[in-house]
Write a structure and sequence with these properties.
Layout (H helix, E strand, L loop, with lengths): L2 H7 L1 H25 L12 H18 L3 H20 L6 H4 L2 H16 L6 H6 L5
Helix pairs in contact: 2-3, 3-4, 4-6
């Protein structure tokens, strides 16, 4: 069996795994800023980092649970654009040198979620019987 056959056979489950990992990791980043969890320190809620923490926490949960996943991905996309250009880009254009590679990887991940939606096993489909956004 070729890789394409395996990929096609398990596409739905692999996408859910992708969505779960991206959502969990983004939730963890946000909750570091928002609550000081996972080795972080809580930021002032009305600061730029505090707002980023709120968006990252909510977007991560939305993507993880498949509840308003596209809207959550849009919030994450905007947050990563702001993060890259306000925090990382002033330190140079090279993402590997300015620390912005994770922001770009998240950006690409959120583009995929924005296009693909929740996929299988989504809370939105269970509660609302459809994908709203």
């Amino acid at each position: 069996m070729t890789i394409k056959k395996y990929a096609d056979k398990y596409k739905s489950g692999l996408y859910v795994l992708f969505r779960l990992l991206v959502g969990l990791m983004f939730f963890m980043h946000g909750s570091m800023k928002l609550f000081g969890w996972f080795g972080g320190s809580a930021q002032q809620l009305m600061s730029l980092m505090g707002v980023a923490g709120v968006v990252e926490t909510l977007a991560g949960l939305g993507i993880f649970f498949g509840f308003f996943g596209r809207l959550s991905a849009l919030g994450g996309l905007i947050t990563m654009i702001v993060a890259f250009f306000m925090v990382h880009f002033p330190n140079g254009w090279n993402p590997l040198a300015n620390g912005g590679e994770l922001a770009l990887v998240y950006f690409a991940s959120f583009l995929i979620v924005l296009v693909m939606g929740n996929g299988a096993w989504s809370l939105e489909k269970v509660l609302l019987n459809k994908e709203v956004f």
